[in-house]
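Re: the pair you flagged

First of the two:
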Amino acid sequence: MRNHGYNGVDGDWDLVVLPDPAYEHLLVNPAGERNASGTLTCEIEPTEPIVRALAKGPQSRADVEADFFGPLKDKPVRIVGTWSVDRSHFANGKTPGRPAPKRGKMEIHPITSIFAVLSEPGAAIKRVAFFVFSNQSRRIAFPVPHNGEARTGRFQTPFPTAGAGDQFRFRLVREENHAASVNYEVLLLPNGTRALRGTVNAGSSRDGQGFYHAIIERWYR
């Protein structure tokens, strides 16, 4: 992840990512034009009540976004969401005088889930971050796909290599749970290794839900 920020105009939390080579096609719009920046902006708008609930003391909305997305900067991330054309901007970044449905800038909007590796390579204890969102947009001019819907996110990540008889463990270092359901399980894979799987139904804004975040450590002993 290259950068992040809070958009005070529409309330979006933005991640700017440099796609892996296998996903560079996501930068190209229906007119065959590539995002001039070479990056993909990924956006989500949590509900206002949840943002207020996440704030610590006098934190602003921008402070809340930075608290969650700041640790992802310069880390590898896997983002699942809706591949969309931003009709309010051309692929070259300029703002058109009228909507540009085919020549717009490509984005992931809204984000459904984020999985990020936080620990350094070779660390004995592996640390990851996991988010699941349901979008609640205030936009009127350009409707956002899946707005207000309950969304489900999943991840699966291996444990460090272990010896025979070792015990596999994980713990939630941090958890902000405004979701409908959360499930974690340790799996034994066909190749004999272990993995941690997480599945979260974020729920919907009408139920006062729509946000989940956890920082998870996993190890064996």
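Second of the two:
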Amino acid sequence: MPRNYNPTKEKILALLGAGVELSFNRSPLGHIRIWKKLGREWADINEKQLKESIRYFYRRKLIDFYENEDGTLRVVATDEGKRKNLQNRIKQFKINIPKKWDKKWRIVIFDIPEDKKIARDILRRKIKRVEFLELQKSVWVYPYECKDLIDFMTAFYEIKEFVKYITAEKIEEDEKIKRLFELE
């Protein structure tokens, strides 16, 4: 863990970046889930740690302050703060695995150009970590809904135009794939 890590700092960055996450999430239920989580996160923050963390983020140019017309201060994540928050969100992103498989395959295909090699490598590492199965070079399959993750990553890394997300009911000779995912 980084030397300056503390849970309060992570919560504050997450809270400041929630607006960005809301903009990437198209699902009304997803919005409700994010807002509920925000309420719980605020309730758990110690006031002293909050002040220390805000000073820490300000010194590192992750947040900035703006004065409202009524004299109150507004804390806003800078572009760098938003970027760091999104990177943390991608690392922590979890896919909800239902109790029963819906018998649909999620296929992610990408052909990302060399000038976006870093984004391509990050996408590949993340889908490997989630345990997608590589069918062939840059063609990956997964049995559960993961569109939010793929949309989030492709938007953040600006590679949406190079990535295709497909939902399929059948993959030819998919018995081996089912066994690998322990679906039967």
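The beta strands are 63-67, 73-77, 105-110, 133-136, 139-142, 163-168.

-B.
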